[in-house]
Fold this sequence. Notes:
The chain is of the alpha+beta class.
Amino acid sequence: MRENSNDQRDERWPREIGDRADCPECGRRSVVPVVFGYPGSELADAYERGDVVLGGCVISPGYDPTVRCTACNWSDADRRHPEE
Ligand SMILES: [Zn+2]
């Protein structure tokens, strides 16, 4: 219901399948977009290559990561997770 949720997207992170970014946790270039929804064949191929993470596999209640590291499993939602 938040109108400004788009503002919270971080410009640093990849949005296109095939794009990668450096992981702030492990430093490897393994941060890939998280894609929600039913994976078509193109998405399934990208998933096989490790170029994308399927949101349905990693979703946590209340948090919606937009990117995730395939090496250490870090996601941008982790930053917002209150560890208390
Ligand atoms: Zn990592």
